[in-house]
Amino acid sequence: MSGQLVAKTAHFALHMAKSHAAGGAPDLFPGGGAWLGVILPKRWARHAVTRNTLRRQIYAVTRELAAGLPQLPMVVRLRSGFSRQDFPSATSDALKREARAELLSLLGERLARRPRAPAVAPSAAPAPQADDAPA
């Protein structure tokens, strides 16, 4: 992958581009903002139902964390398979919980620890106060 490996868990890896346009190159992701790609190889998830279940979990977690994600192109990649002995059903609640926990760790906690550019602080306006004077 050409994007930098940012974080990984037992089953997933997160790659991120440094910016939208690299030094005069045409922008592949017009409009800026966060872009998400998902790679779920058949090598690690043989059945389409498993890949679709994992894909839905990835999109659900990113929707929940959208406000905290960097405004850059990202790719979430399945890097190893889930054990068929531990998760015999492709759509089991146990598989969904395990995938969700790893994705929250991958996208939430690990990205929160990455250094970011300082945000511009809004102007400090005094909080409105109730009048104590009689009317």
What are the segments in which pLDDT stays under 50 over at least 5 consecutive residues? 117-125
- Run of helices and strands: EEEHEH
Q: What's the helix count?
A: 2
* Strand arrangement in the largest pleated sheet: 1-2-4-3
Query: If you consult CATH, what is the topology?
Result: Ribosomal Protein S5, domain 2
- The number of distinct β-strands equals 4
The overall pLDDT, averaged over residues, is 80
Separation, N- and C-terminal Cα atoms: 69 Å
* Portion in beta strands: 15-25%
Major sheet details: 4 strands, mixed
Shape by Cα distribution: globular
The computed structural class is: alpha+beta
The whole-angstrom Rg is 20 Å
The level-1 CATH class: Alpha Beta
In CATH, the architecture is 2-Layer Sandwich
Number of domains: 1
Approximately how much helix is present in the residues?
A: 25-40%
What secondary-structure arrangement, pairings included, does this model have?
Blueprint (H helix, E strand, L loop, with lengths): L3 E5 L3 E5 L18 E5 L8 H17 L8 E6 L14 H20 L23
Parallel strand pairs: 3-4
Antiparallel strand pairs: 1-2, 2-4
Helix pairs in contact: 1-2
Report on the structure:
- The chain has 135 residues and is an alpha+beta fold.
- It has a single domain (4-19, 33-112), classed as Ribosomal Protein S5, domain 2 (2-Layer Sandwich), CATH 3.30.230.
- The chain is built from two helices and four strands.
- It has helices at residues 48-64, 93-112; strands at 4-8, 12-16, 35-39, 73-78.
- A four-stranded mixed β-sheet has the order 1-2-4-3.
- Helix 1 (48-64) crosses helix 2.
- The chain starts with a strand and ends in a 23-residue tail after the last helix.
- The model is unreliable at 117-125 (pLDDT under 50).
